């Protein structure tokens, strides 16, 4: 696949500053980095974002994530590999990514389950991370950014 455009963040350098602020905010609320990684990976899978799926899975693996869990993210409901908190975050990521699929995009039961496992600050960080992931996914998919070819 050939990119339609160089990465827009590279063309508009001020964007990088804003993205760094979002990243720091989402990662400063005390949410387990593995949960943020799972949320990122699942939203990216739903959106078909090759670069984000590729880099997200590779970064999680470098951080110690197991292949069993990485391979099972698309079918997290049908596997025993995830905690209740991770399942709640994955469900929230799916619903918040697929906003147009239902009239009640994020039903109370999805939100309430997440709220059982995370405080308000952590929920805010997870929602911000889902939105940031969707932001990157939309840029990458629209401009046909390829997954890196230089992984060794």
Automatic annotation (TrEMBL):
It holds the Pfam family CMD. The lineage of its organism: Bacteria, Bacillati, Actinomycetota, Actinomycetes, Micromonosporales. Residues 13-94 form the Carboxymuconolactone decarboxylase-like domain. This is Carboxymuconolactone decarboxylase family protein. It comes from the Bacteria.
């Amino acid at each position: 696949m050939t990119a339609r455009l160089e990465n827009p963040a590279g063309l508009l350098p001020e964007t990088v500053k804003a993205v760094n602020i979002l990243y720091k905010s989402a990662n400063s609320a005390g949410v387990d980095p593995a949960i943020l990684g799972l949320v990122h990976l699942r939203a990216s899978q739903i959106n078909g974002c090759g670069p984000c799926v590729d880099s997200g899975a590779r970064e999680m693996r470098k951080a110690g994530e197991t292949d069993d869990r990485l391979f099972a993210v698309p079918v997290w409901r049908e596997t025993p590999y995830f905690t209740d908190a991770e399942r709640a975050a994955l469900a929230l990521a799916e619903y918040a990514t697929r906003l147009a699929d239902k009239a009640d995009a994020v039903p109370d039961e999805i939100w309430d389950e997440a709220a059982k496992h995370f405080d308000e600050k952590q929920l805010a960080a997870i929602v911000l991370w889902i939105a940031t992931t969707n932001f990157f996914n939309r840029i990458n998919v629209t401009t046909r950014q390829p997954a890196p070819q230089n992984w060794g």
